[in-house]
Amino acid sequence: MRARDRAAVSALRATLAALDNAEAVPLDETAPRAAALEASPVGAGATEAARRELSEEEMVEVVRAEAAERLEAAAHLTVPAHADRAERLRTEAAVLLRFLDGATEGTARSA
Description:
By secondary structure, the chain is an all-alpha fold. It is built from 3 helices and no strands. The longest helix is centred in the C-terminal third of the chain and has 28 residues, at 83-110. The protein is elongated and about 60 Å long.
C-alpha cells in the first residue's frame, strides 16, 4: 500500500464499505413507527441498534461477490475506449481474490 496502488486501495475501500453494509441491521417493516414527535425515543443512543456480526464465511462471500461484480463489469466493457477501465476492474478483482487465497491458506494451516 505504500506504493499507493490505486487499484488495491479502491478495491479494499469498496469492499470494506460492502462489509459494513452487510453488517447493518435490516429494517423491520412490521415494527410500529411513531408518528408524533412526543412518541419518539429520547436520549443518547435511544435509536441505535446493535450491528450484525458476520461469520468468516459470510465475509468471504461478500469479498467474493465484490470480485465477481468487478469481473462481470469488466466483461461488459468491450469497447476499446473502455479497455483501461476494464483492466483496472480486473486488477481490483485480482487483489480481492489474492486476499481470499491468503485467508484460505491461513485457515487451512490452522486446521
